[in-house]
Structures are given as C-alpha cells and as structure tokens.
C-alpha cells in the first residue's frame, strides 16, 4: 500500500513537471527594449482564450482591465486595450519594468534613450521610424562597408523581403523594425530610408558569466 502511495506521488510530481514544462515552452516572457516616446503592444499569451484581461505592473497596480464590454484604465492617456492587446503609449523611463496579464508575467520592458543602444542578447528590440512613406530598412554590420537591405514596407502594407531571415527575427512592427531574440551579430547601424535610426551593440548575456570579475 505504501509503495502504491509513493508511486502515485511520483506520478503526480512527474505529471506536474510535465505540464509545467509545456507551459514553459508555450508561454515565453518577452523582454523588450524600446526607445522612449514610442509605443508597445503586449499580448496576453499566457491566457489567450480568456476574453477578460487584467494587466498589472511590477508594483501590483491594475493598469488596465477588460471584463466583458467594460474597459478601465489607471491612466487613459497611457494605456489602451484593443484586439486582445494592451498598448502602452508614449513610453517613458517610468514605464520600464514587469507587466502581468491575469496573474502571469508576460513582459519585462526596458526603455531606451537616444539612438545608441547597448542591449543584452536574447532581448527584443524595437527601432522606430516615423516616416509615413514606404520604409526601406537596411543594416550595416560594424566595420563592414556593405549595406544590406532587410525589407521594404509599402504604405499599402505590402512587405518585400530582401534578406534571408529563416528564423523570422526581423519583423515589421507598426512604424518600427522589431528584432526578436537579439544575436551578437546583429550589432551595427540600422537605417530607415537611408537615415541612421539606431547604432546597436548587442552584449553577451549574463548567463555567460557577467560577474566573472567579481571576487
Ligand atoms: C502595394 O504597393 C506596391 C508598390 O507601390 C505595389 O507593388 C503592390 O502591388 C501593392 N500591393 C497591393 C496589394 O495593392
């Protein structure tokens, strides 16, 4: 009998680990780096089928909620919910931090200033371009004379890709270029319609021993 109980316990633990593992795979906490004054859309990935949403910041304050048709905000000028997304407008330093949807951590947001960025690998970067015309995005690697076109976004929404992107890391985002899961080789200059809009240096993640020099 004892063995049977222990067996059941092990089975439960295994099952728990199994489902947790799955949740971990399907729900990724997004780590965004976004320049100030731009906006960001967050999706409630951990609870996608729930039509009701309650968004909280890292301090635990409810910043936006949607229950049925009723929508309310902590600050109407700052937040907006539509089509299942929370929009954070006019990003400023104070908006940096964690964002929770229905109790689950969805995103961690870093707010950048200027156009020279030092960002850890693995994060997701948004590079805005205010041009209302078509946007031709290009990239020049550090110490490389060659400019490589990434894609063109036409005003009618048509996107023409000019560069191989098998993992889909370069994504057109409302008036911005989104680079998902930054890699060290993404370091360089980014141009929108030939204007430099970002100088990026991707730095090695902390997992690789960022505290090595501390004794
Ligand atoms: C969008 O605009 C581009 C460039 O003007 C054109 O080549 C393309 O056919 C257009 N696409 C649609 C769906 O209208």
UniProtKB/TrEMBL annotation:
Q: Residue limits of the Ig-like domain?
A: 42-101
Which PROSITE patterns does this UniProt record tie to the protein? IG_LIKE (PS50835)
- Which residues, if any, are the signal sequence? 1-23
Read off the SMART domains from this record.
IG, IGc2
| UniProt keyword annotations, A-Z | Signal
On the tree of life, the source organism's domain of life is: Eukaryota
- What protein name applies here? Ig-like domain-containing protein
Source species, please?
Alosa alosa (allis shad)
Lineage per the UniProt record: Eukaryota, Metazoa, Chordata, Craniata, Vertebrata
